[in-house]
Amino acid sequence: MELETIRSMIYEVRGVRVMLDFDLARLYQVENRTLKQAVRRNMDRFPGDFMLKLTKDEANELILIGISQNVISPGYNPGPG
Q1: 4 and 10 in contact (C-beta within 8 Å)?
Q2: How far is CA 56 from CA 28, 49, 71, in A?
Q3: pLDDT tens digits, residue range 20-31?
Q4: In the chain, what is the straight-line distance between the N-terminal and C-terminal CA atoms, in Å?
Q5: pLDDT band per the 50, 70, 90 thresholds, residue 81
Q6: Residues 3, 10, 72, 48, Cα dihedral to 10°
Q7: 18 exposed, middle or buried (CB, 10 Å; 0-12, 13-18, 19+)?
Q8: What is the spatial distance between Cα 78 and Cα 9, in angstroms, rounded to a whole number?
Q9: Nearest residue to 53 (alpha-carbon basis) of 66, 39, 64, 42
Q10: Which of 2, 19, 46, 63 has its CA 20 to 30 A from that of 53?
């Protein structure tokens, strides 16, 4: 996959760069549900700041630009709430 294609899959949410679950699945050439299942089964292998769940407003903002729901984020610490 070309570097520009990968760069186009990186978004900024809450001031951090993130990739969406379905884009990661595409990179790894697996179904999105397969990626999510692998993550759920191996949660102890991922740091606490590896994933975040979008707020309703964040999801709506991404939907407006044609993007979907779940985000996997290297280097993000969601903190309380």
Answers
A1: no
A2: 27, 20, 13
A3: 888 899 999 999
A4: 36
A5: very low
A6: 90
A7: buried
A8: 21
A9: 39
A10: 2
> Nearest 5°: phi and psi at 26?
-65, -45
CB 18 within 8 A of CB 65: no
Whether residue 79 is predicted with pLDDT greater than 70 in this model: the reply is no
Q: Supply the DSSP string of 9-78, one letter for each residue.
A: TEEEETTEEEEEHHHHHHHHTS-HHHHHHHHHHTGGGS-TTSEE---HHHHHHHHHTT--S-EE-TT---
Tokens linked to 51: 């994933």
Torsion of CA 65, 26, 50, 74, to 10 degrees: -70
